[in-house]
Amino acid sequence: MKYEYQDSKLGSIIGFTDNIQKNINHFSITQNTIKFLWNRNEKPVDFTVDNIPVELPPNHLMTITYLHKVSFEKSELPITGILFNREFYCIADHDSEVSCNGILFFGTQDIPIIAVKENQKRKFDLWHEVFTEEFGTPDNIQGDMLQMLLKRLIIMSTRLAKEQLIVKTLNNEQIDTIRKFNFLVDLHYRSKRKVSEYAELLFKSPKTLSNLFSIYNQKPPQQIILDRIALEAKRMMHFTDMQNQEIAYELGFNDPAHFSKFFKKMTHMTPSEYRENKVIAA
């Protein structure tokens, strides 16, 4: 089962399938899409994100952005997938916790995996049924209806994420600051390497950010910035033919030797050793 709605004038798409492994490359637009992956099976499903193994338990869903590289080669059971691009839902790039810049996509430092518990399962199953039916109603307001249903899914999932993934002692303003920081790092990690630069964008002090992430019981802000740079370097080594020198310049390093030193500090391997290890693993 595969459904798609596309507006060619806007370049927008929303797609839906109960077997994303089979249909992932069969949508009109596959690049730069944000995805919900939902395991509706009774057993876990295995796949990889950025070459890292992920196990999605039964009745759990997760979100991945256009920044991630996903492979379903190890998946034995079908995964329900909802994909959409910014042109469909994020035309104005609005900034709120249920936007494309929101908690589900940039609000946590790790890929969010959310449990659909028994008391919520009926609500999500009903959404699935209505969403499926709507793809069979091709009229002038179908796009608006699909957009509203997508927003409902994002709202339901955001509420669960706030309950399950975010420290209870944080208030809404603090949660929003964490979300905005993570989003800004994804935008500017090539050019901004200091916490103070992000603190200025957020109208906060660096100490306030450090204290906030300490309460959140996660990595310090500076580590998040460095990890993001290292992650992008690994992605380029895995998924492009770029040489180490090209990657260094692409990531904002003026000296390839400085990049090599940074990469070894972050991964305990030089870029060349990392590439060799990747080939052996493959």
Explain what you see.
This protein has two domains: 2-164, Jelly Rolls; 169-282, Arc Repressor Mutant, subunit A. It is built from twelve helices and nine strands. The chain has helices spanning 20-23, 86-89, 103-106, 118-134, 142-164, 172-188, 195-202, 206-215, 221-239, 244-250, 256-267, 271-281, and strands at 2-7, 12-17, 33-39, 45-49, 52-56, 60-64, 70-71, 80-85, 113-115. A six-stranded antiparallel sheet has the order 1-2-8-3-6-9. Strands 5-4-7 form a three-stranded antiparallel sheet, with no helix packed on it. A hairpin with a 4-residue loop joins strand 1 and strand 2 (12-17). Helix 6 packs across helix 9 and helix 10 (244-250) crosses helix 11. The longest helix has 23 residues, at 142-164. The radius of gyration is 20 Å and the shape is globular. The model has no long low-confidence stretch (mean pLDDT 86). Residues 179-277 form the HTH araC/xylS-type domain.
Supply the key terms:
six-stranded antiparallel β-sheet; alpha+beta; Arc Repressor Mutant, subunit A; about 280 residues; three-stranded antiparallel β-sheet; globular; about 50% helix; 2 domains; Jelly Rolls
Give the H and E element order: EEHEEEEEEHHEHHHHHHHHH
Helix content: 40-55%
Low-pLDDT stretches: none
Strand content: 15-25%
Strand elements, count: 9
Quickly count the domains. 2
- Main sheet specs: 6 strands, antiparallel
The averaged pLDDT comes out at: 86
Shape: globular
> In which order are the strands of the major sheet placed?
1-2-8-3-6-9
Structural class: alpha+beta
What is the level-2 CATH architecture name of the largest domain?
Answer: Sandwich
User: How many distinct helices?
Assistant: 12
What oligomeric assembly is this protein in?
single chain
At the first level of CATH, the class of the largest domain is Mainly Beta
Specify Rg, calculated over alpha carbons: 20 Å
CATH fold-type name of the largest domain: Jelly Rolls
User: Termini, distance in Å?
Assistant: 32 Å
